[in-house]
Design brief:
117 residues; alpha/beta; 5 helices; three-stranded parallel β-sheet; 16% strand
Length: 117
Amino acid sequence: MKNLKKYTKKVINLSFKDILLPKLDLLINKSILVAFSGGKDSIALLDFLNCNKEIFSYSIVACHVNHGLRDNAIIDEEFCLNFCKENNINIETVNISNDIKNDFSAGIEDTARRYRY
């Protein structure tokens, strides 16, 4: 996990500081739901928002959607749960794997997107 922290700090310093920091005053006293896949981009975003939540008085909740489409989907979900626990971030997880597997109305990508939203 220490390497992830270094990565997120580097990304924050390079782009989030210039792009997102000036906009955080729009989030004062708001609740933010952050889509959290566990990938590098969503880790960086969630970490950035978490690091600044006291300064700007907003609250965050991470949301991880387990589509069950990859063999290691449960590992991804566990990673997200552990990351949030270690960083004191509230997280909600949703498992839609059975819904997707039983829905033949469209292609898998469209079906997953529809259930996710």
